[in-house]
């Protein structure tokens, strides 16, 4: 199997476009190194064909993995956003209940004071 001296793409991408460019650049560099390596070593046709197939498989796997990472990140972001929205909704509901009960208590106190004067 062909060994590539190229580093793997980053596991967590800040943005899909930046990471895609890095993957494409890495793939291009790996292909260039592979072609240069084959010319210098005089490898037989079978070895070159296997190395080329391995490179194609590795490239396809990187692209597949990258798209899965992007999908997972998107899903997690959506989940975290929904969780935060539920917390905000719960807090707002509790604040409204607290505000209305405080308002009710103040109205009762005011009514009690006013009834003393009547």
UniProtKB/TrEMBL annotation:
Residues 28-50 have a biased composition (Basic and acidic residues). It comes from the Eukaryota. Residues 1-11 have a biased composition (Pro residues). Pfam families: IQ. Residues 1-50 are annotated as: Disordered. This is IQ motif containing E. It comes from Iconisemion striatum.
């Amino acid at each position: 199997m062909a060994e590539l001296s190229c580093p793997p793409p980053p596991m967590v991408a800040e943005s899909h476009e930046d990471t895609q460019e890095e993957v494409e650049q890495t793939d291009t560099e790996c292909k260039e190194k592979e072609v240069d390596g084959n010319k210098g070593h005089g490898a037989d046709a079978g070895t070159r064909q296997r190395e080329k197939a391995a490179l194609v498989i590795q490239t396809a796997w990187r692209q597949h993995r990258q798209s899965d990472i992007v999908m997972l990140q998107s899903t997690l972001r959506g989940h975290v956003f929904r969780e935060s929205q539920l917390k905000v909704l719960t807090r707002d509901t509790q604040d409204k209940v607290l505000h209305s009960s405080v308002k009710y208590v103040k109205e009762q106190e005011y009514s009690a004071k006013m009834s003393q004067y009547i």
